[in-house]
Amino acid sequence: MDAAEFRRRGKEMVDYVADYLENIEKRQVYPDVEPGYLRSLIPEEAPEEAESYEDVVKDIERVIMPGVTHWHSPYFYAYFPTAHSFPAMLADMLCGAIGCIGFSWAASPACTELETVMLDWLGKMLKLPEDFLAGTEGRGGGVIQGTASEATLIALLAARSKIVKLIQADHPDRSETDIISKLVAYSSDQAHSSVERAGLIGGVRMKKMPTDSKFSVRGAALQKVLEEDRAAGLIPFFFCATLGTTPSCAFDCITELGPICNAEKIWMHIDAAYAGSAFICPEFRPLLNGVEFADSFNFNPHKWLLVNFDCSFICHISSHLISLQHWQIPLGRRFRSLKMWFVFRMYGLKGLQAYIRKHVGLAKEFETLVRADQRFEISADVVLGLVCFRFKGSNELNETLLKRINRARKIHLVPCQLAGKFVLRFAVCARTTEREIRSENHIRPGQNGATSSRLTRSRRTLSRTPGSRAIGGKAYRRSLGQVCTMASEPQWSWMSQREPEGTVRHLSRKQVHLSQAKNSPYLLHHLGMRFHSPGLGPCLNRMSAPIFRCLGICTALNKMSLP
């Protein structure tokens, strides 16, 4: 392929990518394939002779797309979001073209310096203490890691090295092996599995701290464990606080934990992989109060700041390291700061804040719908873009519900365990869930105490994310309104009109009235269900807030025996 063909093929690929993203809601969010599906679709060996570009592109749809989980689909509510945007994609293209291996300043001055400046930009967005910023004097600073897992491991290894040197300075006769055998690190029992893995790789004990009713580690609990471990001859040296835990987006109380760690000379690392992006919004910045006590801090812009994977930010106070090779496990590194530069400039701080606020607002709306029905419960505080909820009843019932939801492959959710309960996680993920819905939902008393509900047709606004600029054309034009009205479109014919005993009925837009017995569970109206199952209660009919329809919960509950 020469430059002329590259120009032509590049334009074709840009069109393919744009079409893919603009029409992603038409694809099944979760693939219907079995492990090993791909091997039978491609040869067992690489071709000896060159194949044409056309043949390769044809195989994208035949081989690759059938096995893709579409993380950027408006029907993807699993895990946490993974960010992407057109500016970041363009920057990644340039990064690939430059193709530098930026392990030192000499290897690529622009790569080294732009990364330093971008991380200072980011630190200032978060209003981090000056000690975390490189500035012009290089007092602190950070580096882009591939993932938060790498960042946590780096922090733990740095803390281990520091404590070994401190102890050997006072006790030169003690060997490194002896000291490491006594070291103990701590994290929340809600912390990500990568924290435990960091302890395994670092060869140190990792103790999980119990959490309170809010799934938060408190200062008193840490102080108690430290006293017990020191009395047992162990050496506490590292605590990983989590801001925005993976199961429920809970926050450890670092304003209590930080002073204890400082007094005990314990390295405190803060892992805010998901939640960290939200701290650019003033209303969420108080969640980071106490960061001044930390030795290191990391979060993933590739989760929520519209910067494509991989891009994980870690900073450390008062560091004097300049060569990036000393900040990471690998030697080589990509020019990842380019995509931050593109995104920060083309969205601006206000655009990024608007994006995060929109996601949080959608999560709050979902929470409101869940709380409106006594048959469902919220399992953890809804702080950002994650809602943990469950159907009141046994774990087995909720497991069955989730299996049916995912088996339908219309939307994708994942679970978690909270206080021994099986919980469903609803995470607002897709960039395309920019929602401008103008709707009126009327819930008013009917005759004889009955409840009536009428849904006026939702109207969606297809517009760009506030603050985005100059990507042009039809970029960013899909809204959550599309998701919320999708149920009434032809491709949603899987939503059955059947109504035998114990099944679900979905009504057309014209069938807008609900008149059933009083005390009909409000949430189940929103689920769009009609049940005749014994013991379930009043017959339910019609959805007045369309977001639940896209969840497919109505279909998942079909034929289930509910209490």
From TrEMBL:
Region of interest (Disordered), residue spans: 442-468
Enzyme class name: lyase
Molecular functions per Gene Ontology: aromatic-L-amino-acid decarboxylase activity; pyridoxal phosphate binding
One Pfam family here: Pyridoxal_deC
Cofactor names: pyridoxal 5'-phosphate
4Fe-4S among keywords: no
Enzyme Commission code(s) on record: 4.1.1.28
Entry-annotated residues carrying N6-(pyridoxal phosphate)lysine: K303
Pathway where this protein functions: Catecholamine biosynthesis; dopamine biosynthesis; dopamine from L-tyrosine: step 2/2
The entry's keywords: Catecholamine biosynthesis, Decarboxylase, Lyase, Pyridoxal phosphate
Superkingdom of this protein's organism: Eukaryota
GO cellular component: cytoplasm
CDD domains: DOPA_deC_like (cd06450)
GO BP term (any one): serotonin biosynthetic process
Family: Belongs to the group II decarboxylase family.
Subunit structure, as described in the record: Homodimer.
Descriptive protein name: Aromatic-L-amino-acid decarboxylase
Organism for this UniProt entry: Sinocyclocheilus grahami
Biological classification of the source: Eukaryota, Metazoa, Chordata, Craniata, Vertebrata
Gene name, Swiss-Prot/TrEMBL: ddc
